[in-house]
Design a protein that fits this description.
The protein has 321 residues and is of the alpha+beta class. It has two domains: 151 residues, FAD/NAD(P)-binding domain, CATH 3.50.50; 165 residues, Polyamine Oxidase, Chain A, domain 2 (Alpha-Beta Complex), CATH 3.90.660.10. The protein contains eight helices and 18 strands. A six-stranded mixed sheet has the order 7-2-1-11-18-17, covered by helices on one side. The longest helix is centred in the last third of the chain and has 16 residues. The radius of gyration is 20 Å and the shape is globular. The chain starts with 5 loop residues before the first strand and ends with a helix. The mean pLDDT is 94. Bound molecules: flavin-adenine dinucleotide. Flavin-adenine dinucleotide binds next to helix 1, helix 4, strand 12, strand 16 and helix 8.
């Protein structure tokens, strides 16, 4: 890699930002683009009117030495805290053996240190990628003029990468084997106690996969009881195209069926994660074509975890350099 090489990274989730930070340290001129208005991708929180929900990734555990060191540094710097929920699912005793890290003040707090000093352009949806001589021309939905880069990284879900790489389908056969499950979510706040005797409940079958008292996480608003409900993959597939109000209402109906009567929520909203959990990974830390100078990273390279996204982003930075 030449010093000051112009590199575009599409995706400001954990994979894209870990990659960006590592390349920046090596002297590259990195620009990160994301279609959203905020950083973090599936490390996401929704805020408003005294409520806050982490409706994507719930907590993070760390196993590799590198990611453990990163998470411990986040703890020391105040970007993360430990969550010790009361778990009722018969699979794990209170708190479990792993540390459960959460971002501060929301889950995306974990990626903010990675974005420090990086040129990040939000509300930029990459829609086209074409070769022009030795360079890549990158086009955006928002109508801004194409931008030229020597190297391009796609740090987006595999299905979205496939669509952007239509013209280069043969370049990465591993990409086509990846499968991802959706997850529909409901966020509910109650003015009165919900009467649920746990902070976290996980299910191996049935309509719901995960129920968590978001307000039991450190430094979250506690004036109201705030809960996040995640539907199981099969249920999510069946209801995927329903509108978000309907998704939330149906998930609450399933919750009442499981737990009995719940108070009427003072806030209720739904979210559709079309590409939530990697079901079949590429089985390689990252993909890189040195002739095209085109790389791919993301959780889908390794597995369905934030840690996998981080490791994939770093692996790609090494390949590019
Ligand atoms: C409901 C849910 C619960 C989860 N729970 C956990 C958990 O408890 N623990 C755990 O470790 N993991 C969990 N995960 C998985 C974890 O969130 C992911 O593994 C990880 O965040 C993936 O990071 P990433 O950088 O690979 O992708 P993403 O976070 O998806 O980042 C990709 C980014 O690319 C952007 N993008 C996509 N297409 C374009 C485009 N064309 N142009 C510009 N930008 C684009 C997106 O806006 C997004 O910001 C959960 C995920 C979901 C959805």
């Amino acid at each position: 890699m030449n010093r000051n090489e112009r590199i575009a990274i599409i995706g400001a989730g954990m994979a894209g930002l870990a990659c960006a930070k590592a390349l920046r340290r090596k002297g590259a001129a990195v620009t990160v683009f994301d279609k959203s208005r905020g950083l973090g991708g599936r490390l996401a929180s929704r805020r408003g009117d005294g409520v806050q929900f982490d409706h994507g990734a719930q907590y993070i555990s760390a196993h590799t030495p590198g990611f453990t060191a990163f998470m411990e540094a986040c703890l020391a710097d105040g970007a993360a805290a430990l969550w010790r929920p009361d778990i009722h699912d018969g699979r794990e005793s209170k708190g479990g053996s792993d540390k459960w890290y959460v971002g501060l003040p929301g889950m995306s707090g974990l990626v903010k240190p990675l974005a420090d000093g990086i040129d990040v352009k939000l509300s930029h949806t990459a829609t086209s990628l074409r070769r022009e001589g030795e360079e890549w021309a990158l086009g955006f939905q928002e109508g801004t003029t194409e931008q030229m880069f020597r190297t391009v990284v796609l740090a987006i879900p595999a299905e979205q990468a496939r669509s952007l790489l239509r013209g280069f389908a043969g370049a990465f056969p591993e990409l086509h084997a990846v499968a991802t499950a959706p997850c529909l979510a409901a966020m509910a706040a109650f003015d009165e106690p919900a009467g649920l005797s746990f902070d976290v409940r996980r299910f191996n079958d049935g309509p719901l996969a995960w129920v968590a008292r978001n307000s039991s996480k450190p430094s979250r608003p506690t004036a109201l009881e705030q809960w996040v409900f995640h539907a199981a993959p099969e249920w999510s597939r069946v209801h995927l195209e329903h509108d978000k109000h309907d998704i939330a209402a149906r998930i609450m109906k399933e919750a009442r069926h499981l737990f009995g009567p719940l108070p009427v929520p003072s806030h209720l909203s739904g979210h559709r994660w079309r590409y939530a959990f990697v079901e079949k990974a590429a089985g390689t830390p990252c993909l890189f074509d040195p002739a095209l100078r085109l790389g791919l990273a993301g959780d889908w390279c390794i597995g369905p975890r934030v840690e996998a996204a981080y490791e994939s982003g770093l692996a790609l930075a090494e390949r590019i350099a």
